[in-house]
Design a protein that fits this description.
The structure holds two protein chains of two kinds. By secondary structure, chain A is α/β, with parallel strands linked by helices. Chain A has helices at about 5-10, 25-35, 70-75, 85-90, 90-100, 110-120, 135-155, 165-170, 195-200, 230-250, 275-290, 355-370, 375-395, 420-430, 455-470, and strands spanning about 55-60, 65-70, 130-135, 180-185, 220, 255-260, 265, 270-275, 290-295, 320-325, 330-335, 400-405, 415, 435, 440, 445. Chain A is globular, with a radius of gyration of 23 Å. Chain B is α/β, with parallel strands linked by helices. In chain B, helix 4 runs antiparallel to helix 13 (about 355-370) and helix 6 (about 110-115) packs parallel to helix 13 (about 355-370). Classes of the chains: A alpha/beta, B alpha/beta. The structure holds pyridoxal-5'-phosphate (2 copies).
């Protein structure tokens, strides 16, 4: 039986092809130079020719063809130029969505409900409604707003009016109108880079430096010992220690904690995993203290870990209050189930566009494709195969590959290398040998291929990695 | 030939109302939709497939002349044929299915798209762009740019200190900044946490959300008609500038930037004089404060110039945009505003090439058809008609304003209830209009609005006012 990639990307290259001595090569460098006159290019890996990229392969301006295991910072799930998505892109619905972009909160279109239901159909278990944003950070901040509205109106009585003191103080950015409420996030967490989300983000100083921040608490995210087999006891203690810290914050923080936000796998912060006991523990504590639990599935969601929503594997009970999404969904926002997370009055959770039908349409199409073509079972299989191959590599190079993690979570895997310098060298050499990869945390290498990555791509990846590591 | 005749030969000749608005079909659809999505702010369900040009169609088949245009964000009419073409190109399909992480892997055509599109209309002196996703996002990224810029200047080439590196992870100073962003009373700059801290339009926009303790300075309250209040308005400008100077001199924390709208839109369509804006520019310069002009609502040609602040002859350090451009972001010049090192101003998508493509197509149409000239001509005609109406209904139509500012025209009504009743009444007669501030009515037609549309708008407004004054 042919794989999804074989079926839908029949012209996918059989392997990488590097034609210049450096990446970017001369054409790419020239293009970066002109672009840099008008747009900040200091983060640019290379200039991409998207019209030539296909499936799991990204093509740069010099014609280099790279196997892509980074996929636009984990945001392209379906491969480049997926023919089934191109059909959606060319549909009449899409064309109209682009040309007549509505202010959704005021003037939703006749076809909007169907588009939205095509997304909600695949919402995480227990979630019923959605509110749309336009980036991961935006989705998280909107979720925070929903929580704060809810917290204060619960206190006030859901339909009770604001007090005159609230209405006056709020115009001066002061309590009680602007209350001092907090949200707890974890060390090494990443939730975005706008003002509230940057206050929650604790991955690296550079992500936060020089921004005014809310004085919100953190607790430690578990740091497990690997391999997990054989370290059960230590890791269980670690869960308990971290949960005790969370509870301590609830008891002792100077302002009320309205929510806890957590990633199922801390991605930017180093691919740190935790287990069901930890997540259930968070659920129990948030319930005990009347706080909401927000799961940030921006990077993990939409199939990346071999299941649609990563937190579902933990069977958190009752389900989280809000689940945020972006990236692979190509649309952003949050799912929720309590109608009281919708504010009592209009124009509180509001902005001009309130999302974008263009994105929502794409999102529905992506999830339909994932489910109809049964991409996730295949991805889980590829993931196990990939993991076993990386395990072999780890045995071969125990001094280089450490803490291999992500087993059983599709291809959402990572490992550590000895130092940031070694990592930079490794990533650069992988690239010039035909594999595009990304990093995370201090010394992590993360694998973020699309959902259409198959065993044959693993078989291309592994020998290149072996050769590169041997050369280091 | 008026541009609407060229683009939309089949545009309806007049509004056509079959049912009340919202009618039974809209109501039924809203009831359904509300089980998945908050619909409390919905006017009606729109049928964009049957909307055309300056007319929006609703789910009941009612056709309304639209002078609100998706909160001022549709520039060239519904189903504009040139934009339909742009949306059907191969470039667009490629951009849609291969959305890049723009800062890391920009597409080979992104430079051309920016150069021929957004940058070709950048205000004088601002030659770089940072792209974003919404108006709020654009403003917050502009704040970040200013905060990092000022901190970098202060550090004078020294690396981050250990204390900064440690404290920032606890959200404490000195790593977390105690610098502030100044905004103006009644301003509106968005609804995320940083932008909401600079928004001072209405309590409902801000209540229950934690905020930064950032300062404000007063925005002038102008008296109308301008001819009759020259001295008072001049004194008001001076008072506000003096107060601004005072805040800039005495606020206990460093003010990284000031943000201002050329016309305060959500806050009530408050205009101020060129003198005031020039004063703001001079004072911010004098105090080493960066000036951000928020053109999210004013920009894109509705004012008869591409950017409304160009009416005042000032040059800001940053200018934000969104809405009519369909692509959000900010223009700037000083490269240090991009951060002293990479990955400081960063996020996954950093914009969206499909939006940059649409922006380019919109800009091309504005230039190609000299749409701003048309806006100015039509707007002058519109303003004249509204002046007549104000004369006739002087008890209901107050503070008519926006002369010489293209379609950026507004007036007040005696109370919020009367205003809301008026807006509702106009909608029943086939004219879609928006409110702003407590008692304002704002006009926000697209750039394809012509004299024949003015005649219809004026007819509906007049008939509604006449009914209201007879009651
Ligand atoms: C878990 C998580 N949350 C939020 C974000 C922020 O998303 P965006 O970059 O779209 O603002 C990211 C981005 O990497 C993320 O990984
Ligand atoms: C002047 C101004 N700035 C910012 C915004 C916020 O834009 P958005 O609603 O896209 O976040 C608006 C929206 O109305 C605005 O009018």
């Amino acid at each position: 039986m042919s794989t999804y990639a074989e079926k839908y990307f029949p012209e996918e290259p059989s392997g990488p092809k590097v034609v210049t001595e450096t990446i970017p090569g001369p054409k790419g460098k020239a293009a970066i130079k002109s672009l840099s006159e008008v747009f900040d290019t200091r983060c640019t890996f290379f200039i991409t020719d998207y019209s030539k990229s296909i499936g799991n392969y990204i093509v740069d301006a010099d014609g280099n063809v790279l196997l892509d295991a980074y996929c636009q910072v984990a945001s392209i799930g379906m491969g480049y130029n997926n023919p089934n998505l191109i059909k959606v892109a060319k549909s009449d619905k899409m064309v109209r969505a682009i040309v007549d972009r509505p202010a959704l909160g005021n003037f939703a279109g006749v076809d909007y409900e169907e588009m939205q239901r095509d997304v909600i159909k695949y919402a995480p278990k227990g979630q019923k409604y959605v509110w749309n944003g336009l980036s991961g950070a935006d989705a998280n901040e909107l979720a925070l707003k929903a929580v704060f509205f809810n917290y204060q109106s619960t206190k006030r009585g859901f339909d009770n009016p604001f007090t005159p003191e609230e209405e006056v103080s709020v115009m001066q950015n002061l309590p009680p109108g602007n209350p001092e409420l907090a949200v707890l996030s974890f060390t090494r967490a990443f939730h975005g880079r706008l003002f509230a989300t940057a206050s929650l983000t604790r991955s690296k100083p550079l992500h936060k430096m020089d921004m005014p921040a809310f004085h919100w608490p953190t607790a430690e995210f578990p740091g497990y010992k690997y391999p997990l087999e054989g370290n059960e006891e230590v890791n269980k203690k670690e869960d308990e220690r971290c949960l005790a810290l969370v509870e301590d914050r609830f008891k002792n923080w100077g302002s009320p904690i309205a929510a806890v936000i957590v990633e199922p796998i801390q991605s930017e912060g180093g691919d740190n995993h935790a287990d069901a006991a930890f997540f259930q523990g968070l659920r129990d504590i948030t319930l005990k203290y009347g706080a909401k639990l927000i799961i940030d599935e921006v990077q993990t969601g939409c199939g990346g870990t071999g299941i649609m929503w990563d937190h579902e594997r933990y069977n958190i009970t009752p389900p989280p209050d809000l689940v945020t999404f972006s990236k692979k969904m190509q649309s952003s926002g949050y799912f929720f189930h309590d109608p009281k997370l919708v504010p009592n009055l209009p124009y509180r959770q509001f902005n001009t566009w309130c999302g974008d039908p263009k994105n929502i349409l794409m999102s529905g199409a992506i999830m339909k494709e994932i489910n109809e073509k049964d991409l996730l079972p295949a991805l889980r299989e590829t993931g196990l195969y990939f993991y076993s191959k990386l395990e072999e590599l780890q045995k071969e190079f125990p001094g280089f590959i450490r803490n291999l993690r992500g087993k059983g979570k599709g291809c959402f895997m990572a490992f550590d290398v000895p130092s940031p310098e070694k990592r930079a060298e490794f990533l650069a050499k992988m690239r010039i040998n035909g594999v595009n990869l990304g990093d995370c945390g201090e010394v992590g290498v993360r694998l973020r291929p699309g959902l259409v990555f198959g065993k044959k791509h693993v078989d291309i990846f592994i020998p290149i990695a072996r050769k590169v590591i041997a050369s280091l | 030939m008026p541009i609407a005749d060229k683009y939309f030969p089949d545009e309806p000749k007049a509004p056509h109302m079959i049912t009340p608005c919202p009618g039974p079909a809209s109501k039924a659809k809203l009831a359904e939709l509300s089980t998945a999505f908050d619909t409390k702010a919905a006017f009606f369900i729109a049928d964009f497939y049957n909307s055309l040009g300056n007319y929006i169609c609703d789910a009941d088949g009612n056709l309304l002349l639209d002078a609100y245009c998706q909160i001022s964000s549709i520039a060239l009419g519904y189903n504009n044929p040139e934009l339909l073409k742009a949306a059907q190109t191969k470039e667009m399909a490629t951009a849609l299915v291969n959305r890049p992480a723009l800062a890391c892997f920009p597409s080979s055509d992104y430079y051309e798209i920016l150069k021929e599109g957004l940058l070709s209309v950048a205000p004088e002196g601002l030659d770089r762009v940072c792209t974003a996703h919404t108006g709020s996002d654009a403003n917050e990224m502009a704040f970040k740019a200013c905060l990092m810029y000022q901190a970098t200047k202060k550090r004078a080439g020294k690396p981050f200190t250990q204390l900064e590196l440690d404290s920032v992870m606890k959200n404490e100073t000195p790593g977390a900044s105690d610098m502030v962003i100044l905004s103006f009373t009644n301003g509106f700059h968005g609804r995320l946490f940083g932008s909401l801290s600079t928004t001072h339009s209405k309590p409902i926009h801000k209540l229950d959300i934690p905020a930064f303790p950032w300062p404000t300075a007063p925005f002038p309250t102008v008296k109308y008609p301008l001819e009759d209040h020259v001295e008072e308005n001049k004194a008001e400008d001076e008072r506000c500038l003096k107060e601004l100077d005072h805040v800039l001199s005495t606020f206990p924390h460093q003010i990284a930037a000031a943000i201002i709208e050329p016309v305060q839109s959500e806050g009530g369509d408050n205009h101020a004089s060129a003198t005031f804006f020039q004063g703001v520019r001079e004072l911010t310069k004098k105090h080493g404060v960066l000036l951000i002009v928020d053109e999210v609502q004013c920009g894109g040609g509705g004012s008869g110039k591409m950017w409304l602040h160009q009416h005042y002859g000032i040059r800001p350090d940053l200018m934000t945009f969104s809405k009519k451009m369909q692509n959000a972001g900010f223009f700037y010049h000083d490269p240090l505003l991009a951060g002293d090192r990479p990955y400081r101003q960063f996020n996954t998508w950093c914009g969206d090439p499909s939006k940059a493509l649409i922006a380019k197509a919109i800009i091309h149409e504005i230039k190609e058809n000299d749409l701003l000239k048309g806006v100015n001509e039509t707007a002058e005609y519109l303003y004249g008609k509204l002046e007549e109406i104000r004369e006739k209904y002087s008890k209901l139509v107050l503070n008519l304003r926006g002369k010489g500012r293209g379609f950026f025209i507004a007036f007040d009504m005696p109370s919020a209830e009367i205003r809301d009743k008026f807006l509702w009444g106009c909608r029943q007669k086939g004219l879609n209009l928006g409110g702003c501030g407590d008692v304002g009515v704002r006009l926000r037609p697209g750039l394809t609005f012509g004299k024949k549309h003015v005649d219809i708008l004026v007819g509906v407004v007049e008939s509604e006012l006449s009914e209201m004054s007879n009651h």
